[in-house]
Amino acid sequence: MIVRQGYRVFIPNFKLKDFMKKIILLALLVLLPLSVNAESKLDQILASGELKVGTTGDWDPMTMKDPATNKYKGFDIDVMNELAKDMGVKVTFVPTEWKTIVSGITSGRYDISTSVTKTAKRAEVAGFTSTYYKYGTVPLVLKKNLSKFSTWDSLNKNGVKIATTLGTSQEQKAKEFFPNSTLKSVEAPARDFQEVLAGRADGNITSSTEANKLVIKYPQLAIVQDGEKNPAFLAMMVPKSDTVWNDYVSKWIEKKKNSGFFEKLLSKYNLKSL
User: Fold this and answer.
1) Tell me, what's the pLDDT at 190?
2) pLDDT tens-digit readout, 122-141
3) Distance from CA of residue 77 to its chain's centroid?
4) What is the residue extent of each domain of the chain?
Protein backbone atom coordinates (compact mmCIF):
# COMPACT_ATOMS: atom_id res chain seq x y z
CA MET A 1 0.00 0.00 0.00
CA ILE A 2 1.23 3.51 -0.92
CA VAL A 3 -0.04 6.68 0.83
CA ARG A 4 -0.06 9.78 -1.42
CA GLN A 5 -1.60 13.17 -0.42
CA GLY A 6 -4.09 11.63 1.95
CA TYR A 7 -5.18 8.85 -0.44
CA ARG A 8 -4.44 5.22 -0.08
CA VAL A 9 -3.51 3.58 -3.36
CA PHE A 10 -3.53 -0.21 -3.42
CA ILE A 11 -1.15 -1.99 -5.80
CA PRO A 12 -2.32 -5.51 -6.74
CA ASN A 13 -0.14 -8.23 -5.30
CA PHE A 14 1.28 -9.61 -8.58
CA LYS A 15 3.96 -8.54 -11.01
CA LEU A 16 3.20 -6.87 -14.34
CA LYS A 17 4.86 -9.78 -16.18
CA ASP A 18 2.43 -12.25 -14.61
CA PHE A 19 -0.47 -9.99 -15.50
CA MET A 20 0.60 -9.84 -19.16
CA LYS A 21 0.98 -13.61 -19.29
CA LYS A 22 -2.62 -13.98 -18.13
CA ILE A 23 -3.83 -11.51 -20.76
CA ILE A 24 -1.99 -13.37 -23.54
CA LEU A 25 -3.33 -16.72 -22.34
CA LEU A 26 -6.88 -15.35 -22.29
CA ALA A 27 -6.46 -14.05 -25.85
CA LEU A 28 -5.25 -17.45 -27.02
CA LEU A 29 -8.19 -19.19 -25.37
CA VAL A 30 -10.58 -16.83 -27.16
CA LEU A 31 -8.93 -17.44 -30.55
CA LEU A 32 -8.42 -21.18 -30.18
CA PRO A 33 -11.97 -22.28 -31.07
CA LEU A 34 -11.76 -20.28 -34.30
CA SER A 35 -8.66 -22.12 -35.46
CA VAL A 36 -9.82 -25.52 -34.28
CA ASN A 37 -13.21 -25.17 -35.92
CA ALA A 38 -11.92 -23.50 -39.10
CA GLU A 39 -13.72 -24.91 -42.12
CA SER A 40 -11.63 -27.19 -44.31
CA LYS A 41 -11.22 -26.62 -48.04
CA LEU A 42 -12.95 -29.97 -48.44
CA ASP A 43 -16.14 -28.58 -46.86
CA GLN A 44 -15.95 -25.42 -48.96
CA ILE A 45 -15.46 -27.34 -52.22
CA LEU A 46 -18.35 -29.72 -51.56
CA ALA A 47 -20.59 -26.82 -50.53
CA SER A 48 -19.76 -24.67 -53.56
CA GLY A 49 -19.59 -27.55 -56.05
CA GLU A 50 -16.34 -26.19 -57.48
CA LEU A 51 -12.70 -27.31 -57.23
CA LYS A 52 -10.24 -24.50 -58.03
CA VAL A 53 -6.90 -25.73 -59.36
CA GLY A 54 -3.82 -23.57 -59.88
CA THR A 55 -1.75 -24.53 -62.92
CA THR A 56 0.97 -22.96 -65.08
CA GLY A 57 -0.01 -24.56 -68.38
CA ASP A 58 3.58 -24.63 -69.64
CA TRP A 59 5.01 -27.97 -68.52
CA ASP A 60 4.77 -30.62 -71.20
CA PRO A 61 3.29 -33.22 -70.77
CA MET A 62 1.97 -32.43 -67.28
CA THR A 63 -0.01 -29.25 -67.96
CA MET A 64 -0.27 -27.46 -71.30
CA LYS A 65 -2.58 -24.60 -72.26
CA ASP A 66 -3.83 -24.46 -75.85
CA PRO A 67 -3.65 -20.75 -76.84
CA ALA A 68 -6.28 -21.28 -79.53
CA THR A 69 -8.92 -22.59 -77.14
CA ASN A 70 -7.55 -21.49 -73.73
CA LYS A 71 -8.16 -25.05 -72.55
CA TYR A 72 -5.72 -27.18 -70.60
CA LYS A 73 -4.53 -30.69 -71.31
CA GLY A 74 -1.94 -33.08 -69.94
CA PHE A 75 -1.21 -35.66 -67.27
CA ASP A 76 -2.02 -33.35 -64.34
CA ILE A 77 -5.14 -32.05 -66.03
CA ASP A 78 -6.46 -35.60 -66.38
CA VAL A 79 -5.68 -36.19 -62.69
CA MET A 80 -7.60 -33.10 -61.60
CA ASN A 81 -10.57 -33.88 -63.83
CA GLU A 82 -10.72 -37.34 -62.27
CA LEU A 83 -10.52 -35.93 -58.73
CA ALA A 84 -13.34 -33.47 -59.43
CA LYS A 85 -15.45 -36.23 -60.99
CA ASP A 86 -15.02 -38.48 -57.96
CA MET A 87 -15.92 -35.58 -55.66
CA GLY A 88 -19.02 -34.76 -57.72
CA VAL A 89 -17.94 -31.17 -58.40
CA LYS A 90 -16.83 -29.13 -61.40
CA VAL A 91 -13.18 -28.16 -61.87
CA THR A 92 -11.94 -24.65 -62.64
CA PHE A 93 -8.32 -24.19 -63.71
CA VAL A 94 -6.82 -20.96 -62.39
CA PRO A 95 -3.84 -19.64 -64.41
CA THR A 96 -0.68 -19.04 -62.39
CA GLU A 97 3.09 -18.84 -62.89
CA TRP A 98 5.97 -20.72 -61.32
CA LYS A 99 7.05 -17.69 -59.31
CA THR A 100 3.53 -17.31 -57.81
CA ILE A 101 2.27 -20.90 -57.67
CA VAL A 102 3.05 -21.19 -53.94
CA SER A 103 1.54 -17.82 -53.00
CA GLY A 104 -1.64 -18.83 -54.82
CA ILE A 105 -2.03 -21.61 -52.25
CA THR A 106 -1.16 -19.51 -49.21
CA SER A 107 -3.48 -16.68 -50.28
CA GLY A 108 -6.40 -19.02 -50.98
CA ARG A 109 -6.57 -18.11 -54.67
CA TYR A 110 -7.10 -21.80 -55.44
CA ASP A 111 -7.69 -24.97 -53.42
CA ILE A 112 -4.92 -27.12 -54.83
CA SER A 113 -2.15 -26.98 -57.42
CA THR A 114 -1.23 -29.31 -60.20
CA SER A 115 1.98 -31.21 -59.55
CA VAL A 116 5.10 -29.43 -58.36
CA THR A 117 8.43 -30.72 -57.11
CA LYS A 118 8.51 -31.25 -53.36
CA THR A 119 11.16 -28.94 -51.90
CA ALA A 120 12.02 -27.94 -48.35
CA LYS A 121 11.51 -24.26 -49.16
CA ARG A 122 7.98 -24.80 -50.48
CA ALA A 123 7.15 -27.10 -47.58
CA GLU A 124 7.80 -24.24 -45.14
CA VAL A 125 4.55 -22.54 -46.19
CA ALA A 126 2.52 -25.10 -48.14
CA GLY A 127 1.35 -28.65 -47.59
CA PHE A 128 2.11 -31.56 -49.94
CA THR A 129 -0.12 -34.50 -50.74
CA SER A 130 1.11 -38.04 -51.29
CA THR A 131 3.49 -38.30 -54.22
CA TYR A 132 2.68 -40.13 -57.43
CA TYR A 133 5.65 -39.51 -59.71
CA LYS A 134 9.45 -39.49 -59.40
CA TYR A 135 11.84 -38.00 -61.92
CA GLY A 136 15.47 -37.00 -62.43
CA THR A 137 17.08 -33.80 -63.69
CA VAL A 138 19.08 -33.58 -66.94
CA PRO A 139 20.79 -30.81 -68.92
CA LEU A 140 19.67 -29.73 -72.39
CA VAL A 141 21.98 -28.17 -74.98
CA LEU A 142 21.92 -27.60 -78.71
CA LYS A 143 22.62 -30.86 -80.53
CA LYS A 144 25.41 -29.20 -82.53
CA ASN A 145 27.18 -28.37 -79.23
CA LEU A 146 27.05 -31.87 -77.74
CA SER A 147 30.75 -32.51 -78.37
CA LYS A 148 31.56 -29.37 -76.38
CA PHE A 149 29.03 -29.95 -73.60
CA SER A 150 28.99 -33.71 -73.09
CA THR A 151 29.04 -33.80 -69.28
CA TRP A 152 27.63 -31.93 -66.29
CA ASP A 153 31.13 -30.66 -65.49
CA SER A 154 31.59 -29.23 -68.97
CA LEU A 155 28.66 -26.90 -68.29
CA ASN A 156 30.07 -25.79 -64.93
CA LYS A 157 32.74 -23.42 -66.22
CA ASN A 158 33.40 -19.71 -66.46
CA GLY A 159 31.87 -18.23 -69.58
CA VAL A 160 29.13 -20.85 -69.84
CA LYS A 161 25.58 -19.48 -69.64
CA ILE A 162 22.86 -21.58 -67.99
CA ALA A 163 19.24 -20.50 -68.42
CA THR A 164 16.62 -20.99 -65.70
CA THR A 165 12.93 -20.17 -65.33
CA LEU A 166 12.16 -17.89 -62.39
CA GLY A 167 10.40 -19.63 -59.50
CA THR A 168 11.07 -23.24 -60.55
CA SER A 169 12.91 -25.84 -58.48
CA GLN A 170 15.44 -26.04 -61.32
CA GLU A 171 16.37 -22.40 -60.71
CA GLN A 172 17.60 -23.32 -57.23
CA LYS A 173 19.28 -26.52 -58.39
CA ALA A 174 21.16 -24.69 -61.15
CA LYS A 175 22.88 -22.63 -58.45
CA GLU A 176 24.08 -25.85 -56.81
CA PHE A 177 25.10 -27.69 -59.97
CA PHE A 178 26.77 -24.78 -61.79
CA PRO A 179 28.48 -22.47 -59.25
CA ASN A 180 31.12 -21.48 -61.83
CA SER A 181 28.70 -20.71 -64.66
CA THR A 182 26.68 -17.58 -65.36
CA LEU A 183 23.01 -18.11 -64.57
CA LYS A 184 20.36 -16.31 -66.59
CA SER A 185 16.80 -16.34 -65.24
CA VAL A 186 13.81 -15.70 -67.50
CA GLU A 187 10.27 -15.02 -66.38
CA ALA A 188 7.20 -16.96 -67.55
CA PRO A 189 5.66 -17.14 -70.08
CA ALA A 190 9.24 -17.28 -71.41
CA ARG A 191 11.02 -20.56 -70.69
CA ASP A 192 14.65 -21.48 -70.09
CA PHE A 193 14.94 -23.92 -73.01
CA GLN A 194 13.86 -21.14 -75.38
CA GLU A 195 17.03 -19.27 -74.44
CA VAL A 196 19.06 -22.30 -75.50
CA LEU A 197 17.17 -22.56 -78.78
CA ALA A 198 17.82 -18.87 -79.48
CA GLY A 199 21.52 -19.19 -78.70
CA ARG A 200 21.32 -16.83 -75.72
CA ALA A 201 22.33 -19.62 -73.31
CA ASP A 202 24.50 -22.72 -73.62
CA GLY A 203 22.21 -25.00 -71.65
CA ASN A 204 19.43 -25.43 -69.12
CA ILE A 205 18.29 -28.15 -66.78
CA THR A 206 14.84 -29.65 -66.59
CA SER A 207 13.01 -32.79 -65.55
CA SER A 208 13.78 -35.91 -67.54
CA THR A 209 10.03 -35.99 -68.20
CA GLU A 210 9.98 -32.65 -70.00
CA ALA A 211 13.38 -33.17 -71.63
CA ASN A 212 12.22 -36.31 -73.44
CA LYS A 213 9.27 -34.36 -74.86
CA LEU A 214 11.31 -31.30 -75.83
CA VAL A 215 13.93 -33.16 -77.88
CA ILE A 216 11.12 -34.67 -79.96
CA LYS A 217 9.38 -31.32 -80.43
CA TYR A 218 12.65 -29.47 -81.08
CA PRO A 219 15.11 -31.81 -82.85
CA GLN A 220 17.87 -29.21 -82.54
CA LEU A 221 17.95 -29.85 -78.77
CA ALA A 222 19.75 -32.78 -77.16
CA ILE A 223 19.98 -34.29 -73.67
CA VAL A 224 23.46 -34.43 -72.16
CA GLN A 225 23.91 -38.16 -71.63
CA ASP A 226 25.84 -37.98 -68.38
CA GLY A 227 23.30 -39.44 -65.98
CA GLU A 228 20.32 -37.95 -64.16
CA LYS A 229 20.76 -35.99 -60.96
CA ASN A 230 18.54 -34.84 -58.13
CA PRO A 231 15.82 -37.53 -58.01
CA ALA A 232 12.69 -35.64 -56.99
CA PHE A 233 9.04 -36.32 -56.22
CA LEU A 234 5.96 -34.66 -57.64
CA ALA A 235 2.91 -33.91 -55.51
CA MET A 236 0.04 -31.46 -55.33
CA MET A 237 0.20 -28.44 -53.02
CA VAL A 238 -2.60 -27.65 -50.56
CA PRO A 239 -2.88 -25.22 -47.60
CA LYS A 240 -0.34 -26.27 -44.99
CA SER A 241 -2.67 -26.25 -41.99
CA ASP A 242 -5.59 -27.99 -43.70
CA THR A 243 -4.89 -31.60 -42.74
CA VAL A 244 -8.47 -32.65 -43.49
CA TRP A 245 -8.18 -31.65 -47.15
CA ASN A 246 -4.64 -33.03 -47.43
CA ASP A 247 -5.66 -36.39 -45.96
CA TYR A 248 -8.64 -36.63 -48.30
CA VAL A 249 -6.56 -36.01 -51.44
CA SER A 250 -3.68 -38.22 -50.27
CA LYS A 251 -6.02 -41.15 -49.60
CA TRP A 252 -7.63 -40.57 -53.01
CA ILE A 253 -4.19 -40.73 -54.66
CA GLU A 254 -3.36 -44.01 -52.92
CA LYS A 255 -6.72 -45.44 -53.94
CA LYS A 256 -6.12 -44.43 -57.56
CA LYS A 257 -2.64 -45.94 -57.48
CA ASN A 258 -4.10 -49.26 -56.38
CA SER A 259 -6.80 -49.10 -59.06
CA GLY A 260 -4.25 -48.71 -61.87
CA PHE A 261 -5.39 -45.18 -62.77
CA PHE A 262 -1.91 -43.63 -62.61
CA GLU A 263 -0.33 -46.55 -64.45
CA LYS A 264 -2.75 -46.02 -67.34
CA LEU A 265 -2.00 -42.28 -67.39
CA LEU A 266 1.74 -42.90 -67.50
CA SER A 267 1.19 -45.15 -70.51
CA LYS A 268 -1.10 -42.59 -72.18
CA TYR A 269 1.57 -39.88 -72.00
CA ASN A 270 4.50 -42.23 -72.63
CA LEU A 271 5.97 -41.55 -69.19
CA LYS A 272 7.96 -43.71 -66.83
CA SER A 273 8.38 -42.90 -63.17
CA LEU A 274 11.80 -43.61 -61.68
Assistant:
1) 87
2) 999 999 999 999 999 999 99
3) 15
4) 41-129+236-268, 134-231
* CB proximity list for 52: less than 8 A, separation 6 or greater: 92, 94, 109, 110, 111, 112
* pTM (2 d.p.): 0.72
3-state SS string for the chain: CEEECCEEECCCCCCHHHHHHHHHHHHHHHHHHHHHCCCCHHHHHHHHCEEEEEECCEECCCEEEECCCCEEECHHHHHHHHHHHHHCCEEEEEECCCCCHHHHHHCCCCCEECCEECCHHHHCCEEECCCCEEEEEEEEEEHHHCCCCCCHHHHCCCCCEEEEECCCHHHHHHHHHCCCCEEEEECCCCCHHHHHHCCCCCEEEEEHHHHHHHHHHCCCEEECCCCCEEEEEEECEEECCCHHHHHHHHHHHHHHHHHCHHHHHHHHCCCCCC
41-129+236-268 and 134-231: identical CATH topology:
yes
Per-residue model confidence as pLDDT tens digits over 29-76 = 344 333 444 789 999 999 999 999 999 999 999 999 999 999 999 999
Q: Which CATH number fits domain 134-231: 3.10.350.10, 3.40.190.10, 3.30.70.1060, 3.50.50.60?
A: 3.40.190.10
- Kindly report the CATH number that applies to the domain delimited by 41-129+236-268: 3.40.190.10
